[in-house]
Amino acid sequence: MRERVAEHSPLSLLALAEGVDPAPDLQLVQNTFSWLTRRYGRRKAEEWRNEIYLRGIILKSVRRELSAYADRAEIRRALQEEIFFHYDDNKISVFIGSRFSFFDRASLDAIAGVAASLGVKAEFIIQQVRVMPSLKPTARQDAVVRRRTSESEMRIAALRVAASRPNGKATTTELKNEVDRYVALTTEDRIPSKTRPNEAMYQQIIGNIVSHRGSKNNIFAKGWAKYTGDGIQITDAGRKHLRTLGLHD
């Protein structure tokens, strides 16, 4: 029976197998790719390989690491906004935002091994830090790598600065000076602010995080930090949030 399903409906068998064991069955994956190639042509098979299967196992790996937290609205949104995929011939490049930097090398190597079994090389760039062999950027990749860091990422970096201190407090100046320890600043982040000539854009964003305390999306409204008059103090809820993201012991 299994042989007949494998011959005529390998996609269904692959889905059933993954429901039982999340570890990929490389032979079954390769058979599915070959079946799709024969039935629909190489181009369609490669679209399935890249857009559905490899993309899927990467996102599933992140969700497994996050466990129950993966169902939170902010995490689901981040999975869409902070993990980018770029395909170039027989190479797939995956750009992973800093909040998902808990991925260890073993997990990435395992995914790269699955990709290699399907004839494609996988490379991973975490928070603009290359953790796999050097990637020659294309125009599209350059646009992804050099984008301005989002305010949500800056908020997390600010919390990490405060969490690194014994009393959990950091002044706004300290946040501006130390945030680059926790986020890889891009060229656009370092562009001089138009409204604050003596600051870079990323420093203005940090200042806004502290000063715009009425925002419903800010760290104060979420209970992650308290305003101290000249900066922030991370709360227990803030530390818990960082642990949820794998960014705090």
Account of the 3D structure:
This protein has two domains: 2-145, no CATH class; 151-244, Arc Repressor Mutant, subunit A, CATH 1.10.10. Helix content is 51%, strand content 12%. The chain is built from eleven helices and seven strands. The protein has helices at 2-8, 10-20, 26-40, 42-66, 73-81, 105-117, 139-145, 151-163, 172-178, 201-211, 236-244; strands spanning 83-88, 91-96, 121-126, 129-130, 169-171, 225-227, 231-234. Strand 3 (121-126) and strand 4 (129-130) form a beta hairpin. The relative contact order is 0.09.
Q: Layout of SSEs?
A:
Layout: H1 2-8, H2 10-20, H3 26-40, H4 42-66, H5 73-81, E1 83-88, E2 91-96, H6 105-117, E3 121-126, E4 129-130, H7 139-145, H8 151-163, E5 169-171, H9 172-178, H10 201-211, E6 225-227, E7 231-234, H11 236-244
Helix pairs in contact: 1-2, 2-3, 3-4, 4-6, 8-10, 9-10
Average pLDDT confidence is: 78
The spatial strand order of the largest sheet comes to 1-2-3-4
Instruction: Give, in order, the helices and strands.
Output: HHHHHEEHEEHHEHHEEH
Shape: elongated
Instruction: Label the structural class.
Output: alpha+beta
In DSSP terms, counting alpha (H) and pi (I) runs of 4 or more, how many helices?
Answer: 11
Q: Radius of gyration, rounded?
A: 21 Å
Please give the number of β-strands.
Answer: 7
Quaternary state reads single chain
Strand content: 5-15%
Q: List unreliable stretches of 5+ residues.
A: 128-146
Report how far the terminal alpha carbons are from each other. 49 Å
User: What is the share of helical residues?
Assistant: 40-55%
| Whole-number total of structural domains | 2
Largest sheet: 4 strands, mixed
